[in-house]
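Annex B. Sample input.
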Amino acid sequence: MPLPQEFILTLSCRDTTGIVYAVSGLLYQAGCNIIDSQQFGDVQGDDATGLFFMRVHFAAPPHLAEVATLDTLFAHVRQQYAMDARFHAV
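Annex B, continued. Sample output.
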């Protein structure tokens, strides 16, 4: 049985509610296992950008072992939040 492929997803978008839920929920529904996740919103202080940043390290099942496949899977969430999102194989 093929081993899961690991990826890093990095993203940024305007900070709003539901981003972590949308990203983690999509990965869960696709059968991925989140290994590590870090996120923060740059919303405090006079020079705040109002942006949200997230980095997710996850293992994907063999049928999602290509960056192009993940990009297609993630298209709706990317569009919904107008986010800049990139997948990188580990």
